Amino acid sequence: MSSPPLAPPAQPDRPATSASAAQSSGSPTVIRAAGVSKKFVAYSKRATSLKERFVRREGASGEDFWALRDIDVQIGRGQTVGLAGANGSGKSTLLKVLAGILRPTSGEVAVNGRIASLLELGAGFNGELSGRDNVYLNASLLGLSKREIDRLFDSIVDFAELRHKIDDEVKHYSSGQYVRLGFAVAVHVDPDILLVDEVLAVGDEAFQRKCLDKIAQFRSEGRTILFVTHSLDLIENMCDRVLVLETGNLIYDGQPAVGTKLLRQRLGSLPVEGGAVPYDLSPVKPTAVTFSRDPGGAPQVQYDPGEQLTVSVELDLTDHAPQHVYLHVDIMGQGEVPIWMMETPPGGISPGSGIVAVDFVVPRLPELLGAFAVSVRVSDAATGQPVTVRRFEDLFGVSGPQVAGLLRVDYQAGLRR
Ligand SMILES: Nc1ncnc2c1ncn2[C@@H]1O[C@H](COP(=O)(O)OP(=O)(O)O)[C@@H](O)[C@H]1O
Ligand SMILES: [Mg+2]
């Protein structure tokens, strides 16, 4: 697929702010990506050794898939850059490549300064450790000494509003609590460059506000920020510049006002994931998934086989939402293989408008070990017309006795001559 010509590099033309000196086109480049492409082989997504056995059969032919194609971008010190594009356009992949977590298939990345990133939910956290230990682990990975972390610890915990849970293992945290802790660490390590993926959308509104205030503060301090957002408002109000990705191509790099206009056009006309409306414009938005034993119960992320699991999908419906809404939920293994699926009755449900939760109760989890994510597809039950699709990065885990494989299967071993 050929890409439209690239827009010229950004020349931020906003009025001067307190960080204006750093935003002039002459500011030193702190991130430089040249000719960056990233190829994935289908089924290799985040394969863990356990699952690799399952999804990567010997000789299985994986399809090559380009998640990023020939991306050239330079970001100057002090810029606040929004990264936008439809689901699957490559935003998270680009952040990971810039953060040095993924190696590009070709091309080069150079970074000048300390990067702190808040990427996927729980990335960088060890579920078996307490929040306290994870703060130390994470901050030291970002280059802080124990003494420095001791000094910042209270402030991190207060920012995350997790004092009451800080000595609990983080596997018992809700997805919102994960994000709060991750963001709190990222902003306390005095980074020159902050990369933030969509995860902020997981937190509650008050916390999102707090994060945005922090981003604004960073901006006024002349730090460099690159964050993924679907919010056209945020792009227009907080960014000096916007990068728009479409199927792995950088189709625009420049002024927020122009970028948001382009986004509206492209998203409005593009067939996104099977003809669905892009998330931002959708009259029914799956805003969160949560996991608990019982509907409405306390959030829980770790389960034993045989336990009950409730997957709750929160929907935000506008007045234009279809009257009968059909939901399809895929429980995804880490090789992007759907492990099982659940759906509402074909006639759909009638949620009305506002915020509702749809609970899917699994009375007994199978002996299926690993960590699983959720993808939600919404359609209009009356017409079958797709409405939107959202893949959540929140994971729940099923633990069990150590086995070498994905499933535990009963068997007997015997010798025969
Ligand atoms: N590890 C991986 N293996 C295979 N495909 C992947 C992997 N990571 C991402 N992808 C695919 O690359 C594309 C871009 O993904 P991503 O960067 O997560 O998009 P976005 O963040 O814009 O939604 C998607 O089609 C996604 O399924
Ligand atoms: Mg993403």
Automatic annotation (TrEMBL):
GO molecular function, one term: ABC-type transporter activity
UniProt biased composition (Pro residues): 1-12
ABC transporter domain span: 50-272
Cited InterPro entries: AAA+_ATPase, ABC_transporter-like_ATP-bd, ABC_transpr_TagH-like, Bact_Polysacc_Export_ATP-bd, P-loop_NTPase
Entry keyword ATP-binding: yes
GO cellular component terms, semicolon-separated: membrane
Residues passing through the membrane, by range: none
Entries under Gene3D superfamilies matching the protein: P-loop containing nucleotide triphosphate hydrolases
Residues covered by region (Disordered): 1-28
One Pfam family of this chain: ABC_tran
Keywords recorded for this protein, A-Z: ATP-binding, Nucleotide-binding, Transport
SUPFAM superfamilies named among the record's database cross-references: P-loop containing nucleoside triphosphate hydrolases (SSF52540)
Biased composition (Low complexity): 13-27
Family classification: Belongs to the ABC transporter superfamily.
PANTHER family: TEICHOIC ACIDS EXPORT ATP-BINDING PROTEIN TAGH (PTHR46743)
Name of the featured protein: ABC-2 type transport system ATP-binding protein
Organism this protein belongs to: Parafrankia irregularis
